[in-house]
Amino acid sequence: MGEKANQSQKDITGFRPPEDFVRNAIVNDPDIYRRAEEDPESFWEENAGGIEWYRKWDRVLEWEPPHSKWFIGGKLNACYNCLDVNLDQHADKTAIIWEGENGDIRNYTYKELLEEVCRFANVLKGMGVKKGDIVTIYLPMIPEVVISMLACARIGAPHSVVFAAFSGDSLATRIGNANSRVLITCDGYSRRGKIIEQKNKVDDGIRSCGLIDQVIVVRHMGNEITMKDGRDIWWHEAMENSDSSCEPEVMDSEDMLFLMYTSGTTGKPKGIVHTTGGYMVTTQTTTKFVFDLKNEDIYWCTADCGWITGHSYLVYGPLSNGTTLVIYEGAPDYPDKDRYWDIIERHKVTILYTAPTAIRTFMKWGASWPQMHDISTLRLIGSVGEPINPGAWLWYHENIGMGRCPVVDTWWQTETGMIMISPLPGITTTKPGSATLPIPGIKAAVLDDKGNEVAPGQDGYLAILDPWPSMVRTVFGNEERFIETYWIKWDNKTYFAGDGAKKDEDGYFWIIGRVDDVIKVSGHRIGSAEFESILVSHPSVAEAGVVGKEDELRGEVIYSYVTLKSGIEESNELKKELTAYAEKNIGPFARPRQIIFSDDLPKTRSGKIMRRVLKAIANEKDPGDVSTLQDPAVVEMLKEKTRMLESA
Ligand code: PRX
Fold it and tell me: Is CATH 2.60.320.10 what the domain over 446-513 is classified as, yes or no?
């Protein structure tokens, strides 16, 4: 193969996919876009053929805005489509290569994974878990997290996976909202060689919510824990005599597959409801198309199962394609900064899907780390979770993709369930920093406040114009919030994504970031209101305004402007205490970067804190017209305080 055929060709508009990649790509005919646009329902219907159904659907779509139903009347089981369907051809193929932070390796073939899943499904059934009961999973990245998710799907019990680094209180809030009675957790897990005492967090957290009847505990680190009689049981003991076959529950296409909590604009996280049929069809299809997934690939998505990426592109999409996946438990710099590249070399990873914060961190650490390893097995690399700046994109392409791997910058959300805007690696010319084009079957636009499309190059709001199969069905137990958050902005049938964006002359999308009060710290979604309500629950705090400040490494960091109760003195100790308090109440990833004390905050005349103004102040930008504030002088005072911090 000539050098030219191997390298991405840079031309005026961007990077064209290498010729040999195009030749072998699963999707390389641009006509797919036209076909899908002309008849999206037929397009999705055609792709639904990749899933095994117990009963075929009667109709593809019922759209009563903003409610959609897909593959109506269709019956299927998600777990069956991830495991059983692979037994004919791939029973002994490795499904999971798991690597612990300490270097332990556990592999599962498809057959072994199915057996484990069935055994655990029987454990759940034995505990009385039935179709429709929501099971909460609070596990780190160990094989049992995947086994638990699939076991729930097998018996039709929707799972709610709570990110393991969340605090016990955050866990309890989610358990309470889901009304979950069974929890799956572990003794502890490893982070940079330190044991995180997971079970202790559980004990603290669920004491207050009083809902959980049974806790199943995976023994992972062997750290000492307390087992509560009558409530807590060990995973390995429960599994001991459990049968390794379990009939999958026949689920309706519109039955709930899982709940995923995410932060929004109000104080409480919202439970995003995903159903079975449409979700399985689109995650299977997009994993195949966007990652050009082939039978021999070794695929590594570094996301955690506590987030949507871990659901769609670590579990359901890849396994329903019969893929071999790598799962890594720990930190990228443990024991050293080359851990990722070492994993890629040893397991011969061909596809890597990671986040811009990680990429920017690798960039800071320097190319010498990947250069210590042979990572030439890589053939495609992806990015997700936040805007990737062109500099990081180019570094990734050059140093990890060796100038020849297509880069797929994929835009999507917990609510969309699937990748919505992304290159198709065998077709799309990429431009560093742009997620490029909506994938076939998706219609997106950039609109102004009134719902009119803005001109190329102009900023606007990202909108999805037509329904898609894996769209959020509702906010669990809060239909009103579903409508308010996503639909009322325009006409009740155009989806408001909460992101700012622009389109260029070629129709390429450039995502700017959140326009609502959601902060993205290293790709984690944190709601301003959620954070503020935690701060004001501290006995010293009267009021708080929390905003994101742009950060080179993490995308955004948290700036908290805090007014103390009268009589409480400002001090560095109190800053530390509030930082620790926020960390304890949400999790270590939500550590505020700055806490700025202030006697007053920018407020409207009716007393509402103006986060827009605070955000401008934190980012040292012009806050615009502040004449309508209760006290415009506050702005100058806060600007000065922020400036002083920056120069300190
Ligand atoms: O702001 C966008 C950003 O992440 C948000 C969704 O966050 P979450 O629901 O946690 O899901 C993350 C994983 C899919 C979006 O509203 N975002 C996600 N991907 C990109 C992105 N921003 C820019 N470019 C992306 N590729």
Answer: no
